[in-house]
Amino acid sequence: VMMSAIRKRLDDGVGDDEAIIGGAMERVRPVLMTALVASLGFVPMALATGTGAEVQRPLATVVIGGLITCTALTLLVLPAITALMSRYTARRQQRREQDRPGEPLLFN
User: Fold this and answer.
1) Contact call for residues 57 and 45 (beta carbons, < 8 A)
2) Tens of pLDDT along 14-57?
3) 3-state helix, strand, coil in the chain (%, to 5)
4) Do the Cβ atoms of 19 and 2 come closer than 8 Å?
5) Across the chain, where does the E strand assignment appear?
6) Which of 34, 58, 62, 103 is the most buried (most CB within 10 A)?
7) pTM for the predicted model, two decimal places
8) How many C-beta atoms lie closer than 10 Å to residue 4's C-beta?
């Protein structure tokens, strides 16, 4: 979801950094709401004390932890990796153009 928002902005001609920041900010609320709703659904299972709770509690704890980790990675790490890759490909293309000026690039 976030990558499609970033890609849409890049296709519209926005600069790389602006597209990444804008796309990430556009998708903060949907990502947070999805993770929050899923996590809140497991809270009763994590707080259970009845029959089978010794199996349910650890499972719910792992699922909630996974959702929190996945959300943090989506909101923080994914835009950072996208920015790094964007800079890497820009430098690579710039080097290729400097090495062979006037030659058409076969591979981008």
Assistant:
1) yes
2) 999 999 999 999 999 999 999 999 999 999 999 998 888 899 99
3) 80, 0, 20
4) no
5) none
6) 34
7) 0.74
8) 10
